[in-house]
Design goal:
Layout (H helix, E strand, L loop, with lengths): L1 E3 L3 E8 L11 E8 L1 H11 L5 E7 L2 H12 L3 E7 L6 E6 L4 E6 L8 H9 L6 E5 L9 H14 L2 E5 L3 H7 L1 H7 L5 E5 H8 L4 H8 L5 E5 L5 E5 L4 E4 L12 H13 L5 H16 L9
Parallel strand pairs: 1-4, 1-8, 2-6, 4-5, 8-9, 9-10, 10-11
Antiparallel strand pairs: 2-3, 6-7, 11-12, 12-13
Helix pairs in contact: 1-9, 3-4, 5-7, 7-8, 9-10
Length: 293
């Protein structure tokens, strides 16, 4: 399996209560690997899948550390290094209920269409490409995101796309994004992203509306579960078990990995949703966006 997108440094800020604007707020601060694509790749490797990450980093210590972490977790890194630019970084303000991200995309904006095409074109037949939506949502990396989709189509590989984040989706515009991902095999989005792409409504209705653009759509509802709708008429849902939440960071990335590992192994939508929910639950039970070692 190939995952395309971002590899960054997460600065995880677990604050002690509400942020005191203009003053001091106590917090536990940790440095860790992050990036939606990299997190999904790490969770896929955690399930035992062979996975390659295509990404871009700067020629700096942070970038080298991020690659070393992923390789140690079993991810093959097809990562291009760009001199004179910093590896991307994200400040993640996290609590058990929510997380807010302040992002410097850095080298992620330099994801190279030729590099992406080269790696995907050499992939074995019958494989799968998972594209983080972030490359599509920024002008600098958009050509690489589109190149990933085109290369996968030429190679005959199945494709999934994660809608990434509601605010940049809204800025790009739903019609444009849905045109970029048209006829993808699977689109994953959370409730906020589904509101942008499909309009407000019940998750099952949003997923159904999205199948006018993609073959299958999944709308994630956090603790309320997830809905699957297929253009072929297949509908499935999964009600997640309630689990204690330490940190929601990376839960969607873990959900995507669990779902894809199951679905690409031939399991049906309901089993795929269950596998995604199980891995998402494992993610929220720990601090940080990656599986523990």
């Amino acid at each position: 399996m190939i995952v395309v997108g971002d590899l960054v440094t997460d600065v995880l800020v677990e604050q002690n209560g509400p942020i005191q604007v203009g003053s001091d707020t106590g917090a536990a601060i940790r440095i860790a690997g992050g990036g939606q694509a990299a997190n999904t790749a790490a969770w896929l490797a955690h399930t035992g899948r062979q996975v390659t990450l295509i990404a871009a980093i700067g020629d700096d210590v942070a970038g080298r550390d991020r690659v070393a972490e992923l390789e140690a977790s079993g991810v093959r890194c097809a990562v291009r290094v760009h001199p004179d630019v910093a590896t991307g970084s994200v400040v993640v303000l996290t609590s058990p209920d929510e997380r807010t991200m302040i992002t410097d995309r850095g080298a992620s904006l330099l994801l190279d269409p030729e590099h992406v095409t080269e790696v995907i074109s050499a992939a074995p037949a019958g494989g799968h490409v998972h594209l983080s939506g972030y490359p599509l949502l920024h002008a600098g990396s958009r050509p690489a995101g589109l190149a990933a989709l085109a290369a996968a189509a030429r190679r005959g590989l199945t494709v999934s796309v994660d809608a990434a984040s509601a605010a940049p989706l809204r800025a790009a515009g739903a019609p444009a994004f849905l045109d970029w991902v048209r006829d993808a095999d699977l689109l994953l989005c959370n409730q906020d992203e589904a509101d942008v792409l499909a309009g407000p409504g019940a998750a099952e209705d949003q997923a159904s509306r999205l199948t006018a653009h993609v073959r299958n759509a999944v709308v994630k509802q956090g603790a309320a579960g997830a809905r699957w709708s297929g253009r072929d008429g297949v509908v499935a849902s999964w009600a997640s078990a309630r689990v204690p939440v330490k940190d929601p960071t990376g839960a969607g990335d873990a959900f995507a990995a669990g779902l894809l590992a199951a679905w690409c192994s031939g399991n049906g939508p309901e089993a795929a949703l269950a596998a995604g929910a199980a891995l998402g639950a494992a993610a929220v039970a720990r601090i940080g966006a990656r599986p523990g070692h």
